[in-house]
Amino acid sequence: ALLTSCMGRIFFPALGNSAANLLRAAGFRVVELRGFGCCGAPYRESGERDKLRRQAQRLLDAVAEAERDGPLTALVTDSALCAVTLEGYERLFSKESPQAAQARSLGERIRELSLFLDEQGVASRLSWGDPGVGRVAFHDHCQSRHGFNVHLQPRRLLAALPVERAAWPEPQLCCGAGGTYMLRLPQRSEAIREFKLQALEPDDATWITGTNPGCLMHLAAGKSGPNPSAPSPRVLPLAELLWQSHQAADSPQTPPLSPTSGDE
Fold first, then answer.
1. Pairwise CA distance, residues 17 & 106, whole Å
2. CA terminus-to-terminus distance, the chain
3. Is residue 237 helix, strand or coil?
4. pLDDT, tens digit (0-9, with 9 covering 90-100), for 109-162
5. What is the pLDDT of residue 45?
6. DSSP 159-217
7. Residue whose C-alpha is closest to residue 110's, from 85, 140, 91
8. What is the pLDDT of residue 171?
9. Which of these, 243, 254, 258, lies nearest to 17 by C-alpha position?
10. Residue 109 and residue 33: Cα distance in Å, rounded?
11. Which of 106, 154, 221, 256 could staple 114 via S-S, CB 3.0–4.6 A?
12. Nearest to 192 by CA among 168, 222, 226, 213
């Protein structure tokens, strides 16, 4: 099953289709979850446990509905933050409750998209062409990198593409979004973001990619390099970049990319 994120649906409308197309191209039958609303990440970050439990129940119900046609091999999400949130569902319910058992079963099958594709060896199974992006820098989602050790997996996928990769010093540093941190403490959040972006030379990377839509949206509102008049960085979710590259392998002409930036 594919769970598309709220941030992805709102700010990167091509993300969900790109993820679904990649999975189908790799030979998987994809069921897209619908009607669950949100995974509850904002409630988790603000400590609203009852509201988070309500959203968790809605998503568990959506998964149960999807499994009426057979068990799901995995629940794949196009958002790193959603994956982190879902893996904590079991702690929301009493240990003996049916919901806890559902959440436990789900937790064993939750995968952020890049992790799932890497586990399945998709980098070597699909063909890749030039997506027309120039140099690309990869941004890590903090909770995925530090909490779940997901950082080499998306880089292995990116390494399979015929693109030049830009090094980003101190990749372990946060972009400043921090979930609702960018809304509660915008000045601090922006200062962290600018510190992060200034580590990239203005001409060092033409695009920034990553696995968390919230991080990419926040980075797109910053400025590349120390020059305040510099353009905002162009960002593209990794799933879209991968799908664009796979399409380019079958087409002599790569369709133009549509950057998401703070200037739009």
1. 23
2. 32
3. strand
4. 999 999 999 999 999 999 999 999 888 999 999 989 988 889 999 999 999 999
5. 86
6. HTSSSEEPP-SSTTS--S-TTTHHHHSHHHHHHHHHHHHHTS-TTT-SEEEES-HHHHH
7. 85
8. 85
9. 243
10. 15
11. 154
12. 222
The whole-angstrom separation of Cα 136 and Cα 39 is: 29
Asked if the model's pLDDT at residue 203 lies above 80, the reply is no
Hey, what are 220's tokens? 């797109």
Q: Which of 262, 3, 33, 257 is nearest to 130 (CA)?
A: 257
CB 8 within 8 A of CB 15: yes
Query: What element of type H or E holds 137?
Result: strand 135-139
Q: What global pTM score does this model have?
A: 0.90
* 173 in Cβ contact with 145 (< 8 Å): no
For residue 84, what are its two tokens? Answer: 């982190």
- Decide if 233 contacts 220 (C-beta within 8 A): yes
Question: Residue 263 gets which letter from DSSP?
Answer: T
As a whole number of angstroms, the distance between CA 172 and CA 187 comes to 21
Q: Other C-beta atoms within 10 Å of 32: how many?
A: 13
Query: Are 135 and 164 contacting, i.e. CB atoms less than 8 angstroms apart?
Result: yes
Distances (CA, A) of 256 to 143, 186, 235, 259: 32, 33, 14, 9
Q: What is the model's pLDDT at position 264?
A: 33
- Predicted confidence (pLDDT) per residue in 213-234, tens digit: 999 999 999 876 556 666 778 9
Hey, what are 43's tokens? 């409630």
How is residue 119 written in tokens?
Answer: 């586990």
- How far apart are the C-alpha atoms of 186 and 192, rounded to whole Å? 10
Q: Report the number of secondary-structure helices (H) and strands (E) in the chain.
A: 15, 7
Q: Which residues 6+ apart lie within 8 Å of 105 measured at CB?
A: none
